[in-house]
Structure prediction request, 612 residues.
Amino acid sequence: MPDGVEVVDAPVSIAKAPDPAAAARSTRDASIVRAATAVADGQADAFVAGGSTGTALAAGLFNIKRARGIHRPALALPLPIPGMPVTLLDVGANVEVRAEHLVQFAYMGSALHQVVYEIPRPRVALLSNGEEPSRGTTEVVEAHARLLEASGLDFVGNIEGHALVEGAADVVVADGFSGNVALKVLEGTSQRTLVEVQQIARRSVRARVGNFLLKPSLYDFHAEIDPEQQGGAYLLGLRRLGVMPHGRFTREGVARAILLAAQATEGDVVGRTREALEAAGALRSAPVAAPAPPAADAAASVPGSS
Amino acid sequence: MPDGVEVVDAPVSIAKAPDPAAAARSTRDASIVRAATAVADGQADAFVAGGSTGTALAAGLFNIKRARGIHRPALALPLPIPGMPVTLLDVGANVEVRAEHLVQFAYMGSALHQVVYEIPRPRVALLSNGEEPSRGTTEVVEAHARLLEASGLDFVGNIEGHALVEGAADVVVADGFSGNVALKVLEGTSQRTLVEVQQIARRSVRARVGNFLLKPSLYDFHAEIDPEQQGGAYLLGLRRLGVMPHGRFTREGVARAILLAAQATEGDVVGRTREALEAAGALRSAPVAAPAPPAADAAASVPGSS
Prediction:
């Protein structure tokens, strides 16, 4: 056993539970629940969960709780784009969102990007179906207007899907439905394009020789765009951080997820997010649920910046 | 002037109008309005519009009118995936949709795919953030339930973004917001991946030689995934068909768009869509606006198939 590692017994599996949220609340001895309670009790600083997102989210919300003033946790993913880090959130925690949720995602993503990539003022964009402020769903249009007034954030406006991979922004904010679609299309298309290149390389002798010579470099590229190299998604918005490697990752990817969790904890992503949201007046004011007051209105009265 | 071509004067440009919908209603002499009225008057069978989608949609709705029983027109695009035709709709006409709109999009896309690719029974899927019927927005979940009961359609369930490029379905249905995001991410990522391959090919002498040999084949591939080769998007759901080449297309792409319009008109996409929707009982029953009755309920009482 390496130094500093403690194994906690978690003999019950809720991986196949029909209602993961309910199972996470009622089953103390599932590994995700043990991990979340260890964080809640201060025995651990962050948790890493490779199971279903829904279960980890439920266990985190129930045990670790939402950070003060946060509407909804979000899943943030560093995209597998070589040499050009882009953080996309939400990639699946919230299928339906309100404008104030998108505004908070912008701050959460910006704080994460600052810590992970050491970029002091990341450019933040909203994912939409057009660049104009009037384009997008009602929530996107409203979030755009609020972000234009927001302090402590470098909001660069709406971007379309193609700009996601063209370096137009460092942090891209979306609802969890279209964010998930964007992520999956991106992963699928980059893999598929490389497969197409391989198939095309069989069409002529010249191309076959060319492909043979190029192959080792393409192999490296394959590795670069492999989601496993990123280590997984960050769960932001709880009192402590979570990192979620994908279920199909090997031990390499899970190890990387643990390193990400340590790095983001040392960089105090949770504290930085709260400070930025507080300075911008974008924290949810009431500690209970129900519609929160418009974040942008509050932001306008607090001209400070993080 | 080639035989069969008649030029109609349209001296007024509304390309930069602040409110394209209003301009399309008040400006008789704009080319898109002239084209739409020619179709409405029976002088033409379809229109091809390279300007803004919003303007063409407004001109089409105002002059050609929605087809009987159709809730909303939708933009359908054959995706630039080599050797594997996939029709994605809606790619931007309707940012917000209801479940019955998604159901109609499924029939509209299926009819188009049958005509364009001569596939008798295309597999139709809903784009979502998970394959389970419970995943997705409220509208997607409801549309899934209705499509499971729908006749005259090969509904294969939900697919995630990566499956869009993996041949999981022939027709993929989405709201216009996430459909547009999916399309743009796909186009951007395939182009970007090829650029990455070129950059990687400069890293070593071996790779440079390989790339030199492979380049002619890759050039062909570039052309295959060029959206211009597809000729543009189909505007479905009006009494007559529209085709919209992208604004950045050259004359080649516009010529292709005209051919697409002729082919889809000869194949009677509009008539086939109406027949399929009618047989499935999925037509909007009231001719006026306001919430329509649930399409699936109506479908359940008409067990016939198209």
